[in-house]
Amino acid sequence: MRLKTLLDGADCEPVCGTLDKDVKALSYHSDKAGPGAAFFAIRGEKNDGHKYIKELAERGVDIFIVEEMTKECIALQGGATTFIKTDDARKSLAIASRNYFGEPDKQLLTIGITGTKGKTGTSVLLKEILEKAKIPTGIIGTVQQGYVGNYEEAENTTPQSYEIFRLMRKMADGGCKAVVMEVSSQALMQRRTEGIRFDIGIFTNLSPDHIGEGEHKSFEEYAYWKSRLFQQTKTAVVNGDSPYCEKILAESKAKKTIKFSLKQAENIQLYSGNGRLGSVFTFGGEEIRLGLPGRFNLYNAIAAMTAAQMLGISTGEMKNALETVSVRGRTEIIPTGKDFTVMLDYAHNGAAMENLLTALREYQPGRLITVFGCGGGRDPHRRTEMGLAAGKAADLSVITSDNPREEEPDAIIADIVCALSETGGAYKVIPDRAEAIKWTLQNAQHGDMIAVCGKGHETYQLIGREKRHFDDREVIKAVLSNMDQDTDNLGETK
């Protein structure tokens, strides 16, 4: 693709060099750029693409899109190198990526989902509904990205713009007719979805999260960026029960807005059995069986069904998808063959923990036990909130490590314990996560419900700067396979 065509609409101005060049690749990682690539110098919290320009030029890169003509840039002027100035390299990368991949979003029905909680659940539910209605659908989200037979590991809830449009191109070429995308506040702030005019935008809910160093400065900023989805949405489907609904819609440019509510689910009844927890309810005159527990999953289902109705999909067509759906790492029940229940969930903040445990309590377990830690390098208030939520709602909390990153795991655990102790709730500290899971399962009693929280779909632990393989699911299955061994007594708790 010619450079001039690539940058059409990208808000760039040439500084020097020609636009009459052939671009063979786009790059925003210095280690992946080579001759023929256009390099976008992106500034992040911990790194700055501008500092690699001299090195890249020596490797044969001669097209740079920059936010500043640094000393290194100025020194390279006058030769064959082309410099393009932009006010926002991330935005320019998004537009250029869209052009590079031939505007694949125009070939797909695009659905974007934002909110503090429920993005993953709603996206998976909606994808399943669309697939059952014979609409081949791709998904871009926390748990998976791609389409049936062509899934890739997801590193971020919403990947960088280049990856979004690469995936969309792959989906369109692979026969997909729609894509469901989780759209995080960080993605909106970093302009990763720039250029997409979503056919449907969905807002699930809003609560304080992702606030702190390296994230959002305040709840107001967080809410603002969530609301920006509806600057690029044709039809808005929003949670009318959320107290922040109008705030989210304040500057909406959607031509049509539809509000959904839990009140649309009538005659709600809980059920359990065959390794599943769920609910039965009436929606639009049809009885629906949802194979996921909790009021929050009801909200996710209603959001997905509301969007599906707009696409002409009948409630009857939705039934099978809703009953059989499962979401990896979200209220995911692990078969035990025992007389207790084990569940994995991604709950990693106080609100999510409270929602999960409140939902599970409704199924009247013998004991409600949670195994959890909290990530390092994140807002410390998460630890307090998770500790308080667990202490109030669980019969026993087994406190362990999560992703400590560059913090000391014991310090994170101490913060959790400090908050949990205020509630008077029972707890046990086992810093090693595998040992914590092992102890909990070996000491489970008849009718117990165990929620292993925090990591959900993740298959790693972040310890220091190292990413180590760790999968709660694998640990649980390994322990269960040895459950014929003698087990310790429950042991003393505080």
What does this structure look like?
With 494 residues, this protein is α/β, with parallel strands linked by helices. The protein folds into three domains: 97 residues, 3-Layer(aba) Sandwich (Udp-n-acetylmuramoylalanyl-d-glutamate--2,6- Diaminopimelate Ligase, Chain: A, domain 1); 222 residues, UDP-N-acetylmuramoyl-L-alanine:D-glutamate ligase (3-Layer(aba) Sandwich), CATH 3.40.1190.10; 149 residues, Mur ligase, C-terminal domain (Protein-Tyrosine Phosphatase, Chain A), CATH 3.90.190. Helix content is 32%, strand content 23%. Strands 9-8-7-10-6-11-12-13 form an eight-stranded mixed β-sheet, sandwiched between helices. Helix 4 packs parallel to helix 6 and helix 5 crosses helix 10. The radius of gyration is 24 Å and the shape is globular. The termini are far apart. About 1% of the residues have low confidence.
Features:
about 500 residues; alpha/beta; Udp-n-acetylmuramoylalanyl-d-glutamate--2,6- Diaminopimelate Ligase, Chain: A, domain 1; UDP-N-acetylmuramoyl-L-alanine:D-glutamate ligase; Protein-Tyrosine Phosphatase, Chain A; 3 domains; eight-stranded mixed beta sheet; 16 helices
In short, what is this structure?
This protein is 32% helix and 23% strand. The protein has 16 helices and 24 strands.
Strand segment count: 24
CATH class value of the largest domain: Alpha Beta
Fraction of residues in helices?
25-40%
Largest sheet: 8 strands, mixed
Q: Can you tell me the overall shape?
A: globular
Beta-strand content: 15-25%
